[in-house]
Structures
1.
Amino acid sequence: MNVVNRIKEISLSESPTLDDILFLLSLHDQSSLEILRNAAFNLTTQMTGNQVWFRGIIELSNICRCDCNYCGIRKSNKAVPRYQLTKEEIVSAAMWAAQAGYGSCVLQSGERKDPWYTDFIEECLIAIKQQSTSTCMPHGLGITLSLGEQTPETYVRWHKAGAHRYLLRMETTHPPLFSSLHPAQQTFENRIESLHHLKKAGYLVGTGVMIGLPGQTPENLAHDILFFKNEDIDMIGMGPYLVAENTPMKKMGMMGKEELLELSLKMIAVTRLICKNINIASTTALQALEPTGREKGIRYGANILMPNLTPRKYRSYYQLYDHKPCIDEGREACRLCIRQRVTSTGRSIGTYDYGDARRPDHA
Ligand code: SAH
């Protein structure tokens, strides 16, 4: 069977196999990659329309209780000055997004579990919802949280306060690899349980993995995609693993940039073909590999972008990995740059709406 027919057959299959996914991930020559890209782009149009949706990201604090071996803001990294945005700074960034027509914002931070923090996030959510409700957005700005593992009670409280999506990456769905990335107290089982708690609390649930981790195999990545499908995940945020200063994993190095970009784009395309009507982000980390990395993500089947809304003075303190792009650009510059990136792909920009691929009450 030729490549076109095999891709078509796999994308129509109700139960794609690990071998099917491995076949797609193994495509490498230019013409096969172009066929894969086209199939993913066209399926995206069919499933989620021609629009790309913006989630303005507010990196509200780099204070973290975790010590993930890959992460530039891990607790043990004493070289990074720690910061915490005030409620006013957070709400004002969110209001900027609402006025720019973004439709949604993401609140992301290091992981904190202290009661002060739980209350603080709840207050921010209530304030953002109240202030952003308008005739253009009758339900206010859509809010995604990306605040790490919390208790089931906290998930419920934050959902009631107005957040309707939660992003918690698995990082990898291969348990031994997961263990090699994290200290012993962070377990694979807890991570999966958290995803289930989030679904139960009523969120649209997002997850994702890092691509090109030291020791990661194509089989691991194929399993990751099957996991997204089997767990009925609503949104995916995934990107290349990039080394970060002052981390235990830095000495292990990383994949060559070209190969890593190709693999990351293939992961987006194959996830689209297998998971169909979900939202997939073209992450900033892609742009760290190549200046046009995020546009390429859209061309390979992503339909979400996350422009940075963090006040400029804090941006350099939120470097999860080295050479993070856009750390000295203001919000307006980011908006214009990203708008241009989207239109160059032939897509249009969705505004004043959540842009959920699936509704929170989907069966
Ligand atoms: N504390 C939150 C947010 C973490 S930062 C949480 O635990 O969910 C968001 C994501 O950045 C992480 O989930 C991880 O996948 C990614 N990340 C961290 N370090 C990275 C690195 N060195 N290279 C690529 N991605 C990285």
2.
Amino acid sequence: MNSVSNTRRPAVLLLGGTSEAGAIASHLATHPDLKLISSLAGRVAHPKLPTGQTRIGGFGGVEGLITYLQQEKIQIVIDATHPFAANISRNAAAACQRLGIPLISYVRPPWTPQQGDHWQDVPDLEAAAALTRSYHRIFLAIGRQELAPFATCIHPWFLIRTIDQPDVPLPPNAKLILARGPFHLADELRLLKAHAIDCIISKNSGGPATYDKLEAARILGLPVIMVDRPTPPTNNVHTIEAVLSQISTELGRLITKY
Ligand code: NAP
């Protein structure tokens, strides 16, 4: 059988911004049978760059992504973006469908409540903001980009943690701390106790890096308002191994086409 490396190495676009995308890039950047390009949204000022070739910034919607895929002669797309990054996932699905390019979608498994957890699931951040009046001191751990629904919440005091400085107005009674995970249980317990937090608002991002605040909430008996994910892409896989296996399958298909 021909090896792809004996012909032209197919270009693979990896939509990233997650630790899992970084792990996939580590596996594939030196793969002899493909050329990998990682793509980051450019949301954080100093991103952890993945191994290998990387581009940063939006493509310009579906049409821009289609143009990019054509220009770079991309033959496989891997979507390993954050579970709340629904727009880029939707755009990737539309662009791949239009061009007939295989799309491998990785979705990080969501967190599920354990015994002792007091979670209230809400569909979106607006619904979470509507519940804030019931609490006095809220730890708002939802990142930087989606703080807007809380800007008019005047009743509770908020502890807000983001990686970079938010560029939207914060609620009037708030303290901002800038920090990047992973966060560890002892530190999360200390943070919650030091600020007398009585509720946490979290997105159901999944993964280990930001989970320990939920374990701390369980230990302290604190309620958690948990924001559900947007609808995930169809035909997704939940492990890095499954992504690598699908890549092998797609490469095999491409080899037989040459
Ligand atoms: P989004 O709403 O899905 O994407 C908005 C736009 O950003 C996309 O339409 C695309 O712009 C660009 N974009 C997103 N990911 C990209 C990538 N990997 N490469 C190139 N362009 C990309 O996602 P978001 O605005 O970044 O974030 C939405 C939610 O996801 C937030 O809750 C955020 O906290 C969470 N999140 C995102 C990331 C991330 O790396 N994106 C990481 C952690 C958490 P064009 O339409 O111009 O192509």
3.
Amino acid sequence: MTVRVRAPGKVNLYLAAGRQRPDGYHPLATIFQAVDLHETVTVREADALSLTMSGRGAGLPTDDSNLAVRAAKLIGEAAGIQPNVEIRIDKQIPVAGGMAGGSADAAATLVALNELWGLEYPQDELLRLGSRLGADVPFCILGGTALGLGRGDVLTPLLTRGEYTYVLTVQPDGLSTPRVFAEFDRLWPDAPEEPQVDERFVSALVQGDVSFVGANIRNDLSESALSLHDGARAVVECHGRAAIPAFVSGSGPTVGACVGDVEEGEAIARQMSECFPATESLVVTGPVRGAHLV
Ligand code: C5P
């Protein structure tokens, strides 16, 4: 039997970060939105565990450092099953781009093996396993739009209105998340212990006030990410000259702008590609559902 699962990437529409905790993580008050850029993970029984990656994943490590491999081992251990499976990942989400690509691989692998092995773990159990693999993995399982507290893994789904369209400008290279957080610590030594979410922003999402949302996206990691990546900074400045509010996705270096519709997004994407030939600009929409069978 072959099982195929798609899991979405995300943008953070709001990310308030606090002072580093003793466990090394940073407390967050963040709002994730899943967007229609997906990882497709296919699994089937085999004699041994193996992983192959295509698309943006070609050439990435396929050993234990890969989150999909760790996901297979973790759910196998929980179920008491040797994870002798062949995993194939077709990757669309930028690598190390601040869009949770690796987390989506892990999320899809958990959902796929739950199905392949007939485990019937409820979503809560998959979320719990996911949070052991990484802070963004639970959201990639859940999808939609959600508030994330704790490390970003304590989730409350938000019933939002409206469709959101973004132009995302992807850099040829990535940024290391721990490095961006370390830079955040350096820039903001007095960050609060308990970051808060802005209720007006949540209300705008719930009411579908797309223009308010687009104009008020906040990310406390922006300065840190941009100070480590001149290419991403140039993209933000270019949007600024056109009076388009731009934002950094997660820990970057992907830069997004919330636009009125796909047509406007495609026009901006073409301009970005002309100005920054080394980058790739994609038009995506959200929210979309979390990891699901296809
Ligand atoms: O959980 P995950 O492995 O995706 O996180 C990668 C790294 O990002 C962590 O090791 C930590 O350095 C940083 N991080 C953090 N606070 C968070 C999430 C991630 O400091 N809430």
